[in-house]
Amino acid sequence: MEKLNTFPNLETKRLRLRKLEEADYEHIIYLRSDAEVNRFVQRPKAENREDALAFIERISLEFLTGKSIYWVITQKNANEMLGSICLWNFSEDGTTAELGYDLAPTVQGRGFMDEAMKRIVKFGFEEGKFQKIEAFTQKNNLPSIKLLKKNHFELKPLRSDPENALNLIFELSEKTYLSFGLKGK
């Protein structure tokens, strides 16, 4: 993917997907430290303001250097961070990205992540020009698996995550994206 000069703020029917800001640090602490949010994820915690601000700075730098795009998920009528969704871990040839996401348990089950995922997948294939988007999710994270399958991601049972043996790997190819008539939605 080519490095972007400006951050791609995006919208859906109910959501605004915007750039992460320093003012979001309390939500970062929550999302990266809460036991329920992180039950199926192995990642560094952000347990205090300094950790959260360092994470925000790293995310900002990764966008500026073309290594990832991290969106804050908010409702259109509010600025409060409900969760995040990102494209990251780009392949060297720029044809593949990994999709990552999290959502506060208090707003799960409302279709927010499905709505955000559809918009980010569209961005990834149509604007990012990726040929494949991957998602790694823990085998016991049934809501995540259901969400990926609903969005036409296919389980790749012969692939494994060397960093986490509990992870399953799903892929969505541009060809599958186009074949389901998802373009433009």
TrEMBL record:
Residue span(s) of domain N-acetyltransferase: 15-173
Gene Ontology MF, one: acyltransferase activity, transferring groups other than amino-acyl groups
Cited Pfam families: Acetyltransf_3
Keyword tRNA-binding recorded: no
Keywords: Transferase
Domain of life the protein comes from: Bacteria
Entry protein name: N-acetyltransferase
Species in which this protein is naturally found: Christiangramia fulva
Organismal lineage: Bacteria, Pseudomonadati, Bacteroidota, Flavobacteriia, Flavobacteriales
